[in-house]
Amino acid sequence: MSSNTMAIRRTYNMKSTRCLPKCLCAFVVSVVFIVFGLVLPFIWPMILKYLIESNMVLTPTSHAYDIWKKFPTSFPIDFYFFNWTNPQDVYNNSVKMRFQEMGPYRYSETKEKTDIVWNKNGTVSFRHLKFWYENRAKGDINDEITTVNPVALSAAYSARTWSYLVRQGLSLSLSSMSPTVHITRSVSQMLFTGYKDPLITLARSLPFLSASLPPWDKFGWFYTRNGSAHYEGIFNMGTGVNSTFGRLYSWNYWTQTPYFEGTCAMVNGSAGEFFTKLDNKSISFFSPDLCRTMTLRYSGQSVVNNILGNKYVVDSYMLDNGTIFPENQCFCNGECVPSGLVNVSSCRFGSPSFASLPHFYQADSYYTDSVEGIRPEKSKHEFFLTLEPTTGIPLEVSARLQINLLMQPDSGISLYKGVPKVFVPILWFEQKIRIPDGEAFKLRLLLNLPVICTALGIILVFAGVIVLSLLVYKLCTMNMCGRRKEKLLYADQSVPLRIDRSVEIVKKI
Fold it and tell me: Which of 301, 356, 360, 507 has the CA that lies 20 to 30 A from 454?
């Protein structure tokens, strides 16, 4: 073998040796791609389950903790008032009370958890700290509203079981201090600022009354709530560690409240932020404003930010007091009223307070027929909550409630002799929250994990096959090229040899 041939072979072997690690690496990568691509479409359920369950636990280091502790943005909340336009006709039973809706008056609400305690039994205890700030984008809080006098009305309602002599004393006090059934105050005073009332000062000076009164020096529907961490009470919720994630175990250390009887007094359902094990029947969460569990029933599916969710609404079941659903009779609080109003008087220091949906939506026609200016509409007054069924994440919330006071004739209180029995609408509020676009994008990625995993698996298989095909082609090309060069070299070396032999033969001849 000539030196040129040996040189060619050495060069070829050196190139093959240098190429071997690269080829081996390409082979391993192609095999990994193919195997992983074939397996990936079948393991996505485990990946999805892990991602969901890892977010179903609340700890100081969990992903949901920071948002749970303090929501990064504020929520707008709109208030609407019912302005009483004909208070002069209150003793004329042939004329209905007329109301004009005023608003919205917008505030911004911030909410965070405080006094957080992690308990050994896998629960967490906390309080809500809320702040409301005036938002001048809508409404002037200096607008004046005429409505029934809530302090005088509450005093008369609380005194209905008192002795005759005490009731007569209250009647004289009301006639001198609050000579009219109605009052006129600004929106700001009605909500957070509050206003002085001589009846409050008088009641707090009486030893037999002061113990049962709220610790207020003024009256306002949200007075003392702004910046208070104690108004809504203390909550005890499951963290998912040896407890049910998101479930409310107690409120104010009660597992049963003193405000209702039987099963209606039970503290159960969600704490209002996390929902698990959703079905097509109903969901429940506890409301500290109503001092009871709210049950929303499934009404169908709804699309929010291109995410399909289960929609749950407040309907006749939640608003009934036993007239339609007998099991709800324990919510009556002694007096069962027609369906549509929730009696929360025991939860509100004995005042004749009743909650409903705005404009008596979903309520018995008895309420809308007794007054004028009420126009219930589903699109404006429905209370609903849309949840993503796989994760339980809220997609859209539209919380709407109305405060009403019961005014009724009382022969023992001169101020209320001859007045009609009416559930007077005072105000309603709505808070609408929708999942932000960024969070919706992340949720869509999570929910589309099966499609993503399948597509990624197909891509990996194709990539592996392509890499393997290129590797085989490269090896074959290198082998053929080396052999061809050797043949050409042998052919080039044989030409001079044949010429030399021909010359020798010619010389001999």
Answer: 301
From the number of C-beta atoms within 10 Å of its C-beta (0-12, 13-18, 19+), residue 487 rates as: exposed
Cβ neighbours of residue 357 closer than 8 Å, sequence gap 6 or more: 314, 319, 340, 363, 376, 381, 382, 383, 400, 401, 402
Cα–Cα distance between 502 and 504 in angstroms, integer?
A: 5
**pLDDT tens digits, one per residue of 440-459:** 998 888 888 777 777 777 78
The C-alpha atoms of residue 343 and residue 337 are separated, in whole angstroms, by 8
- 338 and 363 Cβ atoms separated by less than 8 Å: yes
Interval 283-304: pLDDT, tens: 999 999 999 999 999 999 999 9
**CA–CA separation, 296 vs 275, rounded Å?**
13
CA distances from 296 to 261, 270, 435 (A): 21, 12, 20
CB 284 within 8 A of CB 376: no
Task: Provide the greatest CA pair distance for the chain.
Answer: 163
- CA proximity to 294, closest of 430, 392, 399: 399
DSSP state for residue 337 in the 8-state scheme: P
